[in-house]
Amino acid sequence: MAYVNPSGEFNRDQRYIPTRITADGRDGYPVEPGRYRLIVSRACPWANRAIIVRRLLGLEDVLSMGIAGPTHDERSWTFDLDPDGRDPVLGIERLQEAFLARYPDYDKGITVPAMVDVPTGQVVTNDFSQITLDLSLEWSAHHRPGAPALYPEELRAEIDKINRFVFSDVNNGVYRAGFAGTQEAYEKAYHRLFDRLDKLSGLLETQRYLVGDTITEADVRLFTTLARFDPVYHGHFKCNRNKLIEMPVLWAYARDLFQTPGFGDTIDFVHIKQHYYVVHRDINPTGIVPAGPLLANWLEPHGREKLGGRPFGDGTPPGPPSPAETVPAAHGAI
């Protein structure tokens, strides 16, 4: 399975299923506790956003979560972490089955995160950007007491603006570098990425979070890329001007979020490294997974409290994850 574009610039296929799960059910899928299952892989940064938002908003009891393994083939993600290799709720071996159940001739990417309608076994949507926003806006009746406002109306325009350039230059920017098929395309993506990281460093030097004085959707989206930067993007995707740990402001910002309940406790560094180094064989033909980097430094003091800010605003931190959703200690920052 090839990922590199031999003709030059990597262009992400963004043809996602646009169906939405909403409070009024206008697309035919109303918000209902227990009806839907969020399918993720801890390896995937796009899915990691949904895992974090679900945790922060306290939706675990109304929206179950299935966790696919860290690697996949051309046919899609598999549930090899489950004892019999099947998702225990949906009863399927591959996420592909839920897509084909709704669209028998589906010809686009089988991606995570995906929301699946449990009664029919059909995928509802894999539109990762909209999924997290809808968890904030459409599922609000089921948020935990003290849930933070991740997408407050008064900050929405600014959050959207930051999300646009963080996506194009950073979230997708690392892939544009890693999957570039020519020197010119790679260097263009490389400079675009680090130019944006420099601008973000300048912004975050004087404020604790990207927008306002609390954690928002914007921080969630940047964090999942930063968490993967040194383990995979620096080497595997050749984003090697600096490591994250060599960019003081962004490194402190990332540690601040990592040490915030709901962020670092969702990160599985073992799955992250296995996914990129094993799946992308056209970049890493041997499939060898690097032993490093050292990760205990994620738990070192970050000093960002001096900038003020209130992580959860008027809300409270989420409780610990359930045992079934806890990342193994050996897979975290040790």
From TrEMBL:
The active site is at C44, Y175. The record marks Y233, Y276 as: Lowers pKa of active site Cys. Residues 306-334 are annotated as: Disordered. It comes from the Bacteria. Pfam families: GST_C_2 (PF13410), GST_N_2 (PF13409). Glutathione binds at W77. InterPro entries: Glutathione-S-Trfase_C-like, Glutathione-S-Trfase_C_sf, Glutathione_S-Trfase, Glutathione_S-Trfase_N, GST_Omega-like_C, GST_Omega/GSH, Thioredoxin-like_sf. One of its GO terms (molecular function) is glutathione transferase activity. SUPFAM superfamilies: GST C-terminal domain-like (SSF47616), Thioredoxin-like (SSF52833). One of its GO terms (cellular component) is cytoplasm. Residues 152-279 form the GST C-terminal domain. This is Glutathione S-transferase. It comes from Paractinoplanes ferrugineus.
